[in-house]
Amino acid sequence: MAQTITRGFRDMLAEAESRVESLPVETALSLHRREDVTFVDLRDPRELDREGRVPGAFHCPRGMLEFWIDPESPYHKPVFAEDRTFVFFCGSGWRSALAADTAQSMGLKPVAHVSGGFKAWKEAGGPVEPAASKKG
Fold this sequence. Notes:
Layout: H1 9-19, E1 21-23, H2 25-31, E2 37-41, H3 45-51, E3 58-59, H4 65-69, E4 85-89, H5 94-106, E5 111-114, H6 117-123
Parallel strand pairs: 1-5, 2-3, 2-4, 4-5
Helix pairs in contact: 1-5
């Protein structure tokens, strides 16, 4: 029997975007490197290797987000306990909308995400560190 999906990703994205702040890339660029803001890169390691990184961004693979945020988790990362604004981004803004919504529902605040993600960041001329060269 085939599965019947009753709530698709577009609905989930629309719901998340209605609850979290979506930053235009220009606004995100103005927040970059501020002492009270942490950019959280949700892309997987292959994306980082292929496309580069936003300088100073904290890398948190999307699959670890809930575990790294929760101070009760054995995987908790202290960065998520800091009194800062957390700006999430991914490749195009979909994962980051869902992640920011999840983080906010867990009690992390304030949070936002970058509309258009890393793609928009690069297109707007945002700083990018090249991927570390692989030795082999």
